Amino acid sequence: MIAKILTVGPLAENSIIIYDEESKDCVIVDPGAEGDRILKEVESLNVKAIIATHGHLDHVGQVGFLKEKLKVPFYMNQKDEFLINNDIFPGFAFMLKATKCPPPDYSIKEGDVLKFGTLEFSVIDTPGHTPGSVCFYNQKEKMLISGDTLFAGSVGRVDLPGGNGQDMDKSLKKLMELPEDTVVYPGHGGKTTIGREKRTNPFITGVFRLKW
């Protein structure tokens, strides 16, 4: 399984193209901006679905465009539907050149196993950044798509609509139970591992947790 990060838009959001090298089966994760660029990256792949870690515009701003072009279903936790076309900052949608995001075709939640051809992911509920934030986990590949829950050296903010610090704390503790060699693909910034974040992330070790 190959995971290719495309850093897109003015907020440097990580849209991730995940595909099987042999079958070319593919999913697009968090297409937040630069839809034409994402479309070009998948033109030789068999796109099965678009999946979102949460509903903020910088992660779903090109779902509508790509659904229209690719005719594939959209998966997201329905708790975040109130966010998908929400201009949480004045001019946010304009800045991202966002297209209107449709509601998810399928709502996803903890315990769901998503199978797209030869690709498979377990859904982990990780509320905190938003009520419907989820992560996508593949145990065999030691891969976690963490969205804006966990970053290298940081975590997602909890002061936006629907954010909750106590929920974030519980979600981070849940993620720290994964194997330490799990590679984390976050929604912004570079890759990391669960082990590295356990040892060095100040929001995990407790240095900054009082700020919540």
- Sequence of strands across the biggest β-sheet: 1-2-3-4-5-6
Sheet/helix structural class: alpha/beta
Overall CATH class? Alpha Beta
- Helix percent reads 10-25%
Main sheet, how many strands, which sense, barrel? 6 strands, mixed
Note poorly predicted spans.
none
Percent in strands = 25-35%
Q: Could you tell me the mean pLDDT? A: 95
Give the helix tally: 7
CATH superfamily: Ribonuclease Z/Hydroxyacylglutathione hydrolase-like
Number of strands: 14
The fold-level CATH name is Metallo-beta-lactamase, Chain A
The total number of structural domains is 1
CATH architecture title: 4-Layer Sandwich
Cα radius of gyration in angstroms: 16 Å
Helix and strand string, N-terminal first? EEEHEHHEHEEEEEEEHEEHH
Q: Specify the overall morphology.
A: globular
How far is the first residue's CA from the last residue's CA? 37 Å
Descriptive report:
The chain is of the alpha/beta class and 212 residues long. It has a single domain, classed as Metallo-beta-lactamase, Chain A, CATH 3.60.15. The longest helix is centred in the last third of the chain and has 11 residues.
List the helices and strands and how they pair.
Layout: E1 2-8, E2 13-19, E3 25-29, H1 35-41, E4 46-51, H2 57-60, H3 63-70, E5 74-76, H4 92-96, E6 106-107, E7 113-116, E8 119-125, E9 134-138, E10 143-147, E11 150-151, E12 154-155, H5 165-175, E13 183-186, E14 192-193, H6 194-200, H7 202-205
Parallel strand pairs: 3-4, 4-5, 5-6, 10-13
Antiparallel strand pairs: 1-2, 2-3, 7-8, 8-9, 9-10, 11-12, 13-14
Q: What is the gist of this entry?
A:
It is built from seven helices and 14 strands. By secondary structure, it is an alpha/beta fold. It has one domain: Metallo-beta-lactamase, Chain A (4-Layer Sandwich).
